[in-house]
From TrEMBL:
Organism name: Citrus clementina (Clementine)
Keyword annotations of the record: Hydrolase, Lipid degradation, Lipid metabolism, Plant defense
Active site: 59 (nucleophile), 212 (proton acceptor)
Motif (GXGXXG): 19-24
Record has Nucleus as a keyword: no
Gene Ontology MF, one: phospholipase activity
Name the record gives this protein: Patatin
Domain PNPLA, residue spans: 15-225
Enzyme Commission designation: 3.1.1.-
Entry text on domains: The nitrogen atoms of the two glycine residues in the GGXR motif define the oxyanion hole, and stabilize the oxyanion that forms during the nucleophilic attack by the catalytic serine during substrate cleavage.
Family from the record: Belongs to the patatin family.
An annotated GO BP: defense response
Amino acid sequence: MATAGSAEGKKITVLSIDGGGIRGIIPGTILAFLESKLQELDGPSARIADYFDVVAGTSTGGLVTTMLTAPNKEGGPFSAAKDINNFYLEHGPKIFPQISRSNFLESIASSIDKLLLGPKYDGKYLRTLVNELLGDVTVKETLTNVVIPTFDIKLLQPVIFSTTDGKENVLKNARLADICISTSAAPTYFPPHYLETKDSDSGRTRTFDLVDGGVAANNPTLLAISHISKEMVKQNPQFRDKNPMDGRDMLVLSLGTGTAKKELKYNAAKASKWGIFEWIYEDSNTPILDIYSDGSSDIVDFHVSALFQSCGSKDNYLRIQDDTLTGDAASVDIATEENMQRLVETGTKLLKEQVSRVNLETGRYEKVDGEVTNEEALAHFAKLLSEQLKLRCRQ
């Protein structure tokens, strides 16, 4: 792998994590490996939040972002990367309670009832869990800059929560617990989340009616880059003299949560017979949501890949994604022990796969001749991040 972007100068470092429900186990596996490599270089106390200027996450990626960057009582990050998968393995079955497949009639009746009368899950366990874990910690308190998208269904526009906005505007300084619940509120799966913020000095309030940020930006990489551009316009000294439209000034790691094998999940012959209900819910899947989330993720990768390639700095952008998931592994909410272990294995296998990049003509991820494995690429990326941290500490 080329060494473009090594320690010849300070670069903006970005971590981005897609949405994808229980499939957050896949980036969780990759992040645990990355953090282990950083610890080999800089000691056992090294944590992901130490190395990235911006961490962006949507939906389940927003939960992971929060776990990596929210402060604990000792002032370190709430969770080490190696503990992310333990979170999913412990709490996934309660966030997404499964109906026994042995009772077919119960399963069908429940699916129809949920489709017609409300979201598939009531979200009570997730809300209780994140409120207990995060309490009243707000977004301005994160250990590094975060960017977490949501979507306001009342205003029909995205609402992006970030550390810098929280510091500058008390009405955007929402509790991290509320942000996590909001960015994870996938339509048809969980109910929307209502929250209010208040400026105690002026007495002003702001209300939000929020659903999953994935309806606008399931892959938040471009949001992170746009956030950096906005901070440059505001003359934020952290991003001074850098150009986020020049890939030579950045190191970006973008982690997908996997997508279904393209030719297997849906096809035109099948979909041509669907009415409105099948587009919303078909055979335990949600076709319209899958199309929007996968489409928005891929178009972001198109854009960012083209940006870095045009600057001759393709090795400064590493996207790790698996687009060959089949069966339960392609679902966002099948949290059986068998499927969660399968997702762990998928992430582990992905580390051993050769680095792939999106083909700008076909849209498919293709292995690149002469490239190393994702595991080797991440080890190299860890070295670059370590060098950047040392540069930052000397400034």
